[in-house]
Write a structure and sequence with these properties.
mainly beta; 60% strand; eight-stranded antiparallel barrel; 7% helix
Amino acid sequence: MANTTTWVIDPMHSDVQFKIKHLVISTVTGSFRIFEGTAVTEGDDFEHAKIHFTMDVKSIDTNQKQRDEHLQNGDFFEADLYPKIIFESTSFTKTGGNFYKMAGNLTLKGVTKPIELTVEYGGSQRSIQGVLKHGFEVTGIINRAEFGMSWNVITDTGGLGLGEDIKLVANIQVAKLEDNV
């Protein structure tokens, strides 16, 4: 049996973004500025990795202070009551080439539901300090209503002000835990 390796996210070289339709005609983009996570692997092979990831809800940033405050209140995330978004993987399997399917449980606003995400492995490289890094792009769609975020407005033409689906794009770089100490 191989030894386990713990990899940690390098927040200086990673980001978590989301997109949602606004008025059905355009897309609003935002990000979470504070997040952390680990991947535990058998040796250095990422297949079957166990992933743990959290985001600080109060770090949400859509480049509009008023909108960010609205997203943190009871209409959406209820950040004071539910300050973290948590993801725990249940599987991480190679689907072909550099692609993986990551399944797991997402806890958002006190609701835990299973989700599936697509992961593209970008490769590995040593930093100028000699630290081995691996890069991944994680994408997926989350239905916000399934997590109790059903607030919306109806436009004057009868359409919804906000889309139901949130597109997630996370560009993640990891390094071995002992290399980050």
